[in-house]
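Many introductory courses stop at the sequence. We go one step further.
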Amino acid sequence: MMDLPVTQYAKAGDVYVAYQVFGSGSIDLVFVPGWTSNLDLWWDSPFTSNWLRGLGRFSRVIMFDKRGTGLSDRSGGPPGMDQRMDDIRAVKDAAGSERAAVLGISEGGSLAALFAATHPDRCQALVLHGAFVRFASWFPTQSDLDAFFAYVREKWGSGEAMVKFSPSRKDDQTYRQWWARRERASASPSTAIALMQMNSEIHIGYPAVRARANLGHSPPT
Protein backbone atom coordinates (compact mmCIF):
# COMPACT_ATOMS: atom_id res chain seq x y z
CA MET A 1 0.00 0.00 0.00
CA MET A 2 1.37 3.39 -1.03
CA ASP A 3 1.90 6.01 1.68
CA LEU A 4 -0.27 9.08 1.31
CA PRO A 5 1.59 11.88 -0.52
CA VAL A 6 2.68 15.01 1.29
CA THR A 7 0.90 18.25 0.39
CA GLN A 8 3.30 21.01 -0.66
CA TYR A 9 2.86 24.56 -1.96
CA ALA A 10 4.02 26.17 -5.19
CA LYS A 11 4.04 29.94 -5.74
CA ALA A 12 2.13 31.24 -8.77
CA GLY A 13 2.50 35.00 -8.64
CA ASP A 14 1.15 36.03 -5.23
CA VAL A 15 -0.87 32.83 -4.81
CA TYR A 16 0.10 29.58 -3.09
CA VAL A 17 -1.08 26.51 -4.97
CA ALA A 18 -1.32 23.21 -3.08
CA TYR A 19 0.04 20.15 -4.87
CA GLN A 20 1.05 16.54 -4.30
CA VAL A 21 3.50 14.25 -6.11
CA PHE A 22 3.25 10.46 -6.03
CA GLY A 23 4.02 7.41 -8.15
CA SER A 24 7.27 6.38 -9.77
CA GLY A 25 6.49 5.68 -13.41
CA SER A 26 8.63 6.57 -16.39
CA ILE A 27 6.66 9.69 -17.37
CA ASP A 28 5.39 12.76 -15.54
CA LEU A 29 1.61 13.18 -15.52
CA VAL A 30 0.02 16.46 -14.43
CA PHE A 31 -3.55 15.91 -13.26
CA VAL A 32 -5.76 18.99 -13.70
CA PRO A 33 -8.98 18.51 -11.67
CA GLY A 34 -12.46 19.77 -12.46
CA TRP A 35 -14.01 22.98 -11.23
CA THR A 36 -13.52 22.24 -7.51
CA SER A 37 -11.35 19.74 -5.65
CA ASN A 38 -9.57 19.01 -2.40
CA LEU A 39 -6.29 17.08 -2.44
CA ASP A 40 -6.85 15.34 0.87
CA LEU A 41 -10.38 14.20 0.03
CA TRP A 42 -9.24 12.36 -3.11
CA TRP A 43 -7.63 9.80 -0.80
CA ASP A 44 -10.64 9.36 1.51
CA SER A 45 -12.74 7.40 -0.99
CA PRO A 46 -11.61 3.97 -2.23
CA PHE A 47 -13.05 4.70 -5.68
CA THR A 48 -10.93 7.78 -6.27
CA SER A 49 -7.85 6.67 -4.31
CA ASN A 50 -7.64 3.35 -6.19
CA TRP A 51 -7.87 5.23 -9.48
CA LEU A 52 -5.07 7.58 -8.44
CA ARG A 53 -2.87 4.67 -7.34
CA GLY A 54 -3.44 3.15 -10.76
CA LEU A 55 -2.10 6.31 -12.39
CA GLY A 56 0.90 6.20 -10.05
CA ARG A 57 1.84 2.72 -11.22
CA PHE A 58 2.92 3.97 -14.65
CA SER A 59 3.69 7.66 -14.03
CA ARG A 60 4.93 10.23 -11.56
CA VAL A 61 1.68 12.06 -10.88
CA ILE A 62 1.57 15.77 -10.05
CA MET A 63 -1.88 16.87 -8.93
CA PHE A 64 -3.06 20.13 -7.41
CA ASP A 65 -5.99 22.23 -6.24
CA LYS A 66 -6.56 25.17 -8.55
CA ARG A 67 -6.43 28.59 -6.91
CA GLY A 68 -9.69 29.43 -5.15
CA THR A 69 -10.43 25.78 -4.31
CA GLY A 70 -9.44 23.09 -1.85
CA LEU A 71 -6.15 23.65 -0.04
CA SER A 72 -4.94 26.46 -2.33
CA ASP A 73 -5.27 30.18 -1.66
CA ARG A 74 -8.73 31.70 -1.95
CA SER A 75 -7.64 35.34 -2.24
CA GLY A 76 -9.27 37.87 -4.56
CA GLY A 77 -12.10 37.28 -7.02
CA PRO A 78 -12.59 34.40 -9.44
CA PRO A 79 -9.36 33.78 -11.39
CA GLY A 80 -9.29 33.91 -15.18
CA MET A 81 -8.14 31.10 -17.44
CA ASP A 82 -4.65 32.60 -17.80
CA GLN A 83 -4.21 32.74 -14.04
CA ARG A 84 -5.41 29.18 -13.53
CA MET A 85 -3.25 28.00 -16.42
CA ASP A 86 -0.26 29.47 -14.60
CA ASP A 87 -1.06 27.14 -11.70
CA ILE A 88 -0.09 24.24 -13.97
CA ARG A 89 3.23 25.89 -14.80
CA ALA A 90 3.88 26.65 -11.12
CA VAL A 91 3.35 23.10 -9.88
CA LYS A 92 5.38 21.67 -12.77
CA ASP A 93 8.26 23.96 -11.88
CA ALA A 94 8.00 23.14 -8.17
CA ALA A 95 7.96 19.40 -8.91
CA GLY A 96 10.94 19.68 -11.27
CA SER A 97 8.96 18.61 -14.32
CA GLU A 98 10.09 20.11 -17.62
CA ARG A 99 7.79 18.11 -19.91
CA ALA A 100 4.77 16.04 -18.92
CA ALA A 101 1.59 14.46 -20.13
CA VAL A 102 -1.34 16.60 -19.00
CA LEU A 103 -4.63 14.99 -17.94
CA GLY A 104 -7.65 17.26 -17.64
CA ILE A 105 -11.03 16.27 -16.22
CA SER A 106 -14.24 18.20 -16.94
CA GLU A 107 -13.50 21.95 -16.71
CA GLY A 108 -9.89 20.98 -16.08
CA GLY A 109 -9.85 19.59 -19.61
CA SER A 110 -10.47 23.06 -21.06
CA LEU A 111 -7.63 24.40 -18.95
CA ALA A 112 -5.31 21.54 -19.92
CA ALA A 113 -6.02 22.10 -23.64
CA LEU A 114 -5.17 25.80 -23.37
CA PHE A 115 -1.96 24.98 -21.50
CA ALA A 116 -0.94 22.49 -24.19
CA ALA A 117 -1.61 25.05 -26.94
CA THR A 118 0.19 27.85 -25.10
CA HIS A 119 3.18 25.80 -23.88
CA PRO A 120 3.62 22.94 -26.39
CA ASP A 121 7.27 22.59 -25.38
CA ARG A 122 6.17 21.59 -21.86
CA CYS A 123 3.37 19.22 -22.86
CA GLN A 124 4.37 15.71 -23.92
CA ALA A 125 0.76 14.54 -24.42
CA LEU A 126 -2.78 15.76 -23.72
CA VAL A 127 -5.46 13.48 -22.24
CA LEU A 128 -9.06 14.71 -21.75
CA HIS A 129 -11.75 12.96 -19.71
CA GLY A 130 -15.34 14.24 -19.60
CA ALA A 131 -14.09 17.57 -20.95
CA PHE A 132 -15.94 20.10 -23.08
CA VAL A 133 -15.17 22.72 -25.73
CA ARG A 134 -18.11 24.90 -24.72
CA PHE A 135 -19.66 25.09 -21.27
CA ALA A 136 -23.11 24.57 -22.86
CA SER A 137 -22.16 20.90 -23.19
CA TRP A 138 -22.41 20.66 -19.38
CA PHE A 139 -25.54 22.74 -18.67
CA PRO A 140 -27.25 23.15 -22.08
CA THR A 141 -29.86 25.69 -21.00
CA GLN A 142 -29.99 28.65 -18.63
CA SER A 143 -32.72 26.91 -16.64
CA ASP A 144 -30.39 23.93 -16.09
CA LEU A 145 -27.68 26.28 -14.84
CA ASP A 146 -30.15 28.20 -12.64
CA ALA A 147 -31.28 24.91 -11.09
CA PHE A 148 -27.68 24.10 -10.23
CA PHE A 149 -27.17 27.53 -8.67
CA ALA A 150 -30.31 26.92 -6.58
CA TYR A 151 -28.79 23.65 -5.37
CA VAL A 152 -25.57 25.41 -4.35
CA ARG A 153 -27.45 28.17 -2.50
CA GLU A 154 -29.81 25.81 -0.68
CA LYS A 155 -28.13 22.41 -0.40
CA TRP A 156 -24.37 22.78 -0.97
CA GLY A 157 -22.57 20.29 1.23
CA SER A 158 -25.47 17.83 1.32
CA GLY A 159 -24.05 15.60 -1.40
CA GLU A 160 -27.37 15.42 -3.26
CA ALA A 161 -25.70 16.52 -6.52
CA MET A 162 -23.79 13.24 -6.50
CA VAL A 163 -26.71 11.54 -8.24
CA LYS A 164 -26.26 13.78 -11.31
CA PHE A 165 -22.52 13.23 -11.58
CA SER A 166 -22.31 9.60 -10.37
CA PRO A 167 -25.74 8.05 -11.07
CA SER A 168 -24.42 4.50 -10.77
CA ARG A 169 -23.73 5.15 -7.07
CA LYS A 170 -27.08 6.79 -6.26
CA ASP A 171 -27.84 4.25 -3.51
CA ASP A 172 -24.37 4.30 -1.97
CA GLN A 173 -24.78 6.35 1.22
CA THR A 174 -21.08 6.16 2.10
CA TYR A 175 -20.18 7.66 -1.25
CA ARG A 176 -22.88 10.34 -0.85
CA GLN A 177 -21.41 11.32 2.52
CA TRP A 178 -17.94 11.51 0.97
CA TRP A 179 -19.34 13.68 -1.85
CA ALA A 180 -20.92 16.01 0.72
CA ARG A 181 -17.59 16.39 2.55
CA ARG A 182 -15.86 17.00 -0.79
CA GLU A 183 -18.27 19.81 -1.62
CA ARG A 184 -17.71 21.52 1.73
CA ALA A 185 -13.94 21.06 1.64
CA SER A 186 -13.53 22.20 -1.97
CA ALA A 187 -15.30 25.55 -1.94
CA SER A 188 -17.83 27.66 -0.09
CA PRO A 189 -21.25 28.18 -1.75
CA SER A 190 -20.32 31.69 -2.87
CA THR A 191 -17.04 30.49 -4.36
CA ALA A 192 -18.74 27.57 -6.09
CA ILE A 193 -21.26 29.92 -7.72
CA ALA A 194 -18.60 32.43 -8.77
CA LEU A 195 -16.46 29.70 -10.34
CA MET A 196 -19.42 28.17 -12.16
CA GLN A 197 -20.45 31.59 -13.50
CA MET A 198 -16.92 32.04 -14.81
CA ASN A 199 -16.95 28.54 -16.29
CA SER A 200 -20.17 29.38 -18.15
CA GLU A 201 -18.09 31.65 -20.40
CA ILE A 202 -15.65 28.90 -21.45
CA HIS A 203 -15.33 28.33 -25.18
CA ILE A 204 -12.07 26.82 -26.40
CA GLY A 205 -13.06 25.89 -29.94
CA TYR A 206 -10.48 25.44 -32.67
CA PRO A 207 -9.99 29.19 -33.39
CA ALA A 208 -9.18 29.87 -29.72
CA VAL A 209 -6.70 27.01 -29.39
CA ARG A 210 -5.17 27.92 -32.77
CA ALA A 211 -4.66 31.47 -31.54
CA ARG A 212 -3.01 30.23 -28.35
CA ALA A 213 -0.59 28.23 -30.47
CA ASN A 214 0.80 31.56 -31.71
CA LEU A 215 -0.93 31.26 -35.08
CA GLY A 216 -3.15 34.25 -34.49
CA HIS A 217 -4.28 36.68 -31.84
CA SER A 218 -4.72 35.43 -28.29
CA PRO A 219 -8.40 35.01 -27.35
CA PRO A 220 -9.86 36.74 -24.31
CA THR A 221 -9.88 34.86 -21.02
